[in-house]
């Protein structure tokens, strides 16, 4: 419930404070006095964007503050979600600086406009003339039907499952696309992999084979050189090894004459032994090197295959080729894994779809059950507010599962009992839409907790008995809700529990807006003026008295 609205430096309001009752509050006043300015200020603390042009005094900031009395459970989830401290009395403040910067606070804690708007939806239902466009909104129409069907918790649970279902659908679609792309090159990758697996190269093999081929291709030169070296070392007329042995013996003979000779002789002995080993290994190596035309042909074929694969896969060695083979094997395995994941997701999707279908059927059944009673009640209210020939019909057509069930919901309207129903936004006039919205909200209010209902000139286009009936409906709403209504209709004003009069003050060359609560006699006089003009007649006064007291 909105207890108090404080406005400073907004539009033509310099400083204003209004305390509202918890029942039916009516705001009246001459056109241009500033009635709708009050709601403009209120909309700022409900999350509307600020315009710095609304500052009354451009040198000072604008401050709008609303004090609400709320039930703990009403806003508990919001305060927990945003980690705010909850108190029984809720104060929302909006500040607009002279530079145009806007700030918002909930119980002195800064919040952003999104949070403010989210909170305001829990506190106030603001109905303005242009809000009748909501009646054309499929989302609004569905919310009305579900509110009256008691589907709120069911739809919320369904939406949670539908979100999971949508995520699975999205992931499944991505995997199928990925698999299709993989399958498009699967055959070629399999050919490449088969080619590499058939080649059966081992680590470093091509480099080893290349070295072997060089030896075989130069075997004659290698054997000739090795034979010559071996001959000079061991079989020449004066073999190098034998000469070295003789020189070592001579050096050893000097041991008695020079202390350094034995060491040198020992080193020469080591060299002699090393040359003998070298000569032996050269001989063995020479025996191993043999020209083999068949082996050369085999190596050339093997190396040709290897170098062709190098070029095909843009690598430079055998290990690079083996890495490509491993990548292809992983890729092939990945395709198999994709198929397994897709199968698992398809099974999960089917399971979720079955659960959704069951939940959607339940939601649909409840919607269908409430349709006829809702139509009957709305049509009765329409007759009450001066539209006896108007009819509303709820169209429920089943379609594919979507975020709110499986139904396509549409409110159809026939203003003249012609049995030609059409979408409500296409055939209803502005006045008809306003009264239809009032009838619908009065029904919804009994099913959903709308703490404060605000109507801005919802009575446009009606008068007389229709206006009186609108006042009766609002009075009934005020039994369980706080209702604030801006009106020009005396029949509605007469039903109020508290009557506020908006007026202009002209002082010090400045025009400002003021608001005051009317006493009973002042109410009678004001309503009489609404009936007959600035100087009300005795009949108008009597009529006004009957409206207020009767």
From TrEMBL:
GO-annotated molecular function: ATP binding
Keywords: ATP-binding, Coiled coil, DNA damage, DNA repair, Nucleotide-binding
CDD domains attached to this UniProt entry: ABC_RecN
A GO term from the CC aspect: bacterial nucleoid
Record-annotated RecF/RecN/SMC N-terminal domain positions: 1-505
Keyword tRNA processing appears in the UniProt entry: no
SUPFAM superfamilies membership: P-loop containing nucleoside triphosphate hydrolases
Family statement: Belongs to the RecN family.
PANTHER family: DNA REPAIR PROTEIN RECN
Name by which UniProt lists this protein: DNA repair protein RecN
